[in-house]
Design a protein that fits this description.
elongated, seven-stranded parallel sheet, five-stranded mixed sheet, 7 helices, alpha/beta, Ribosomal Protein L25, Chain P, Alpha/beta knot
């Protein structure tokens, strides 16, 4: 069943309204007809089964509230060092499919990609990728891509569990051990193509981050966060 996000809180006694782009998709791409049903998620993460009324435009009638089933019940921040080109888009898409709630482009010393004056338009495009991935995978919430942060900005965020993936520190904790406790919120930090500077990892450790390993193989920048999300899903009984 097709899914859409609307940018308002749905009143169950009123018709559901779709924006111009969604109406075009329903009418011209999917060729939906009156009586067809879709999922709709509002800004309060309420998810509904909605029956369509199709004319010159498209409205919806609430059939029932849909019980949330696709989320882990954990707020998951992925702080990912910026990656070049299509690999970043791929990372965004898969991170949303795998369950991330918040994605933070991270400014690191060894980043190949630099933050420039056009970042606002890029963040808008990144959030569109996230929205499309969330609709395709039937997420019960809409993940958010934040503006780029430095490490000094990142450490101001609070979470029950704060992890950084880094293979070059002796005595790093196994990921499974870090995820075995009850968790309501988690921040996972992964590097870019150039990896971390050792001072960056030391700074994160000083600010309450635990260094974890991701096994004996060296993963590409876009793979580390996805590996983490898969492990978290398994540990929390989602798969």
């Amino acid at each position: 069943m097709q899914q859409y996000y609307v940018n308002y809180n749905i009143d169950e006694s009123q018709k559901v309204e779709f924006d111009k782009e969604q109406c075009h998709h329903l009418l011209k791409v999917l060729r939906m007809k009156s009586g067809d049903v879709v999922y709709v998620v509002d800004t309060d993460a309420n998810k509904y089964v909605v029956e369509l009324e199709v004319g010159d435009t498209v409205y919806g009638r609430i059939v029932k509230r849909h019980e949330a089933t696709s989320e882990m019940g954990i707020r998951i921040y992925l702080a990912q060092g910026l990656i070049k080109g299509d690999r970043w888009d791929y990372f965004l898409q898969k991170a949303c499919e795998f369950g991330a709630t918040d994605i933070i482009p991270l400014v690191l010393k060894r980043n190949v990609v630099k933050v420039n004056d056009g970042i606002d338009k890029k963040i808008e495009r990144f959030n569109k990728i996230a929205k499309e991935a969330a609709e395709q995978s039937k997420r019960d919430i809409l993940p958010k891509v934040h503006k780029p942060m430095t490490l000094k900005e990142l450490v101001k965020l609070d979470a029950d569990c704060k992890l950084v993936a880094y293979e070059d520190v002796a005595g790093s904790t196994a990921l499974k051990d870090s995820l075995s406790k009850p968790i309501e919120s988690i921040i996972f930090v992964a590097g870019s193509e150039g990896g971390f500077d050792s001072e960056e990892v030391a700074y994160l450790k000083e600010n309450g981050y635990q260094v974890v390993g991701l096994g004996p193989r060296i993963l590409r920048a876009e793979s580390a966060s996805l590996y983490f999300l898969s492990a978290l899903s398994y540990e929390k009984g989602m798969i």
